[in-house]
Amino acid sequence: MNDLIASNKRRTFFLLTGFIVITVLVGMAVGVLIGNGTTGTIIALVFSAVFAFGSYWKSDSVALRVSRAVPADPVEFRRLHNLVEGLCIASGLPKPRVFIIRDDAPNAFATGRNPKHAAIAVTTGLLEKMNRVELEGVVAHELSHIKNYDILVSTLAVTLVGTIALVTDITLRMMWWNGGRVSRGNDRRDSTNPLAFVGIALLILAPILARIMQASISRRRETLADVSACKMTRYPPGLISALEKLQADSTVTHSASMATAHMWIEQPMSGVNDAGRLGMWHKLFNTHPPLAERIALLREI
Amino acid sequence: MDILVILLIVVVLLVVFITMYNSLIRRRNEVDNAWSQIDVQLKRRLDLIPNLVETVKGYASHEKATLDAVIQARNSAMSASVSPSAQATADTAITGALRQLFALSEAYPDLKANQGFVSLQEELSNTESRIAYARQFYGDAVLSYNTAIQKFPGSLIAGAFKFAKREFFEAEAAARTTPQVKF
User: Fold this and answer.
1) What distance in Å separates the CA atoms of residue A138 and residue A145, rounded to the nearest whole number?
2) Domains of chain B
3) Closest Cα of chain A to B162: distance in Å?
């Protein structure tokens, strides 16, 4: 279990590094094309960072309000509170605020910028459909997100995506206005600098690549949360059983949207086609690994 | 220029040393904290027992043997020494006695239906879970600390500043067998 966790963290690190490399490449491409890559990239990075980290700071209240979550009454939802408290003792986390979402679809999410300011929310559908060990597995999964600072990781990813999107967008526009002319330094010759083509291709592909990488990071962290949850409860069958129930259940979560899709334990939108398998396009952009894959991995622990 | 390079190396080594030393301190404190967490839950369990005994007495006062066993176990737990083996013995005694007590409720339907009894039973069951979680966390903390003081180069710092290895919580041999419930 510990090796799985360590390797997952390593992969996230490499993905984020890859992200930064792409950002740098984009900056260089911009440099070749319009002669001023560095400043533009830095400005875009700053803008992106401000937006992303602003939202990260307030991530808990925004996420909760969008999903119409209400605080869970400690008397009415005593079982849930006890579960959360027990798992917090096991993991050394401070107890997060607990919220309820009145929705029949079984689902849950965790949010908050660090363990001290965290919150978890579960739907009433989840509470009804899961038994004690399954609920424990789901809560452990959400607490693992908090413990592994996944909100921070995904904010980093979003910042980088935003940067790349901004830089490529502005550069392509500038080139369009310029009439497609390449940078001043090459004015002598005609603008058939071969790097220009590479640059343009990169600029067009980069945002798509960035989103694919962001989805990949999200999937890694979901798997990490699954494995960390099993470490917390020391009982993989609980979470496996919960995931199997989620697989069998086809109710759509109404309180979610594409924007919040990445936070839930199981993606609220269905990407499964009639054959029961994920279409290849959906596979690239999915924020969660397919349930069958998650269950298979946990069975091997 | 050579002086600068040497100075840089010294600074880097110093930073590394400070980071590792602080990390060992943090892990050791986590172990202590985890141990006291277990204590908190154990205390809570001991505090719940008198209420439970009184509730049961109201319905089944002639079950002297079982009630006495519980009170006896509680008293010895409160006065037991802090050594892990004494604690483990006391723990086994309490768990066994409580199980007998809850089995009693099967024979007394009025007791079983009593709200107070039911809620105390839930509280105790809850506390048992938390004790288990707290022990799990203690084990994790000890693992992390022991590994850190044994790995190189942490072992050098640990040796120099006398960071001692910590013991895992061992369930006593008797606790490994399931307590028998006799009706």
Assistant:
1) 11
2) 2-176 (1.20.1440.20)
3) 26
Looking at the structure of chain A, the number of domains it has is 1
**Overall size of chain A counted in residues:** 301
Q: Give the chain A residue whose CA is nearest to the CA of B144.
A: A2
A-chain residue closest to B41, CA distance = A89
pLDDT of A185 higher than 60? no
> Which 3 state secondary structure label does DSSP give B172?
coil
Does the distance separating the beta carbons of A89 and B134 come in below 8 Å?
Answer: yes
Q: What dihedral do alpha carbons B68, B74, B80, B82 form, nearest 10°?
A: 160
| Per-residue pLDDT band at B93 (split at 50, 70, 90) | confident
Q: Which residue has the tokens 């001991």?
A: B46
**Strand-pair category, A97-101 with A119-123:** parallel
Q: How confident is the model at residue A182 (pLDDT cuts 50, 70, 90)?
A: low
CB-based contact B129 A90, cutoff 8 Å: no
> Considering the entire predicted model, what is its pTM?
0.79
**Is the CB of A90 less than 8 angstroms away from the CB of B136?**
yes
Contact A86 B126 (CB under 8 A): yes
Which residues have CB under 8 Å from A88's CB, separation 6+?
Answer: A94, A95, A96, A143
Q: How much is the pLDDT for A227?
A: 92
Beta-bridge mates of residue A111? A119
Residue A122 β-bridge partners: A100, A108
Range of weakest confidence among A133-142, B80-89, B138-147, B162-171: B80-89
Residue type, A237: P
Q: Which of B34, B136, B141 sits opposite A234 (nearest CB)?
A: B136
Contact A119, A142 (CB under 8 A): no
Q: Residue holding tokens 């798997």? A: A223
Mean pLDDT, chain B, rounded, equals 84
Segment B136-156, tens digit of pLDDT: 999 999 999 999 999 988 888
Tell me the shortest Cα–Cα distance from A215 to chain B, in angstroms.
Answer: 32
Instruction: Show the domain range for A94.
Output: 1-301
Residue A55, pLDDT above cutoff 70? yes
Q: Which residues of chain B have a CB within 8 Å of the CB of A92?
A: 30, 34, 137, 140-141
Closest to B130 (Cβ–Cβ): which among A86, A92, A234?
A: A86
**C-alpha separations of B75 from A100, A237, B60, B69, B129 in Å:** 42, 39, 21, 10, 22
Residue in A110, A118, A139 with CA at minimum distance from that of residue A233: A139
Question: What is the DSSP annotation of A107-123?
Answer: -EEEE-SSGGG-EEEEE
